[in-house]
Amino acid sequence: MSHYCDLAPEHPFHGPYHDHEYGFPVEGDDALFERLVLEINQAGLSWLTVLKKRAAFRAAFDDFVIDRVAAYGDADRARLLADAGIIRNRRKVDAAIHNAGVVQGLQAEHGSFRAWLEAHHPRPHEDWVTLFRRTFRFTGPEIVGEFLMSTGYLPGAHREDCPVQARILAAGPPWARAAAPTA
Question: Which InterPro entries match (predicted)?
Fold first, then answer.
């Protein structure tokens, strides 16, 4: 079976994502929210489709600024569903808007989306899935796993012999911090 580390290098879309984003820690809440929305939109489609539409997603969703997306009403929902540049799936659009409001609540309670993730880390994939299903819409096992791998909360984004893996470890992803022995 081919691994992403075999397929992505030199690819015009997969290459930059693989080399500079996939598996690296993500700091900002808007960037974490973007990754969650993109993973939700990947469901049932290829990641390449999502990467090709990423610029259109950013434009359509106001650069994934959480407060803006959470304030979307019926006119914004209709605009998104009419936007051929993005994936026009009502359940996915509704989930993005709803989840922006959820993230606002997490920010109010924990200070940030990232702090909420950190407060629940580490935990096994199955427990993350349970937590995400209780908290967000449209978050099944594959979406949760990819979101957490892509943002550094679960290992497995890269093979151990992938040159990017060393850069990820140097960036201190949460999964590596959790696996490090304590003194």
Answer: Adenine_glyco, DNA-3mA_glycosylase, DNA_glycosylase
Q: What's the structural domain count of the chain? A: 1
Q: Look at residue 181 and tell me if it is in a domain.
A: no
Q: Is the pLDDT of residue 178 over 60?
A: yes
Q: What is the 3 state secondary structure string of 110-142?
A: HCCHHHHHHHHCCCCHHHHHHHHHHHCCCCCHH
Question: Is 30 a domain residue?
Answer: yes
Helices (H), ranges, the chain = 4-7, 14-20, 29-42, 47-52, 54-60, 66-70, 74-82, 90-110, 113-120, 125-135, 141-150, 163-171, 174-179
**Residue 37 falls within a domain, yes or no?**
yes
Query: Would you say residue 100 has pLDDT above 70?
Result: yes
Using a 10 angstrom Cβ sphere, with 0-12 exposed, 13-18 middle and 19 or more buried, the burial of residue 121 is middle
Statement: the pTM of the whole predicted model exceeds 0.85 = yes
Catalytic residues: 17, 39, 47
Domain that holds residue 79: 4-176
pLDDT band at 179 (very low <50, low <70, confident <90, very high): confident
pLDDT digits 0-9 by tens, 43-69 = 999 999 999 999 999 999 999 999 999
**Which domain CATH number covers 160?**
1.10.340.30
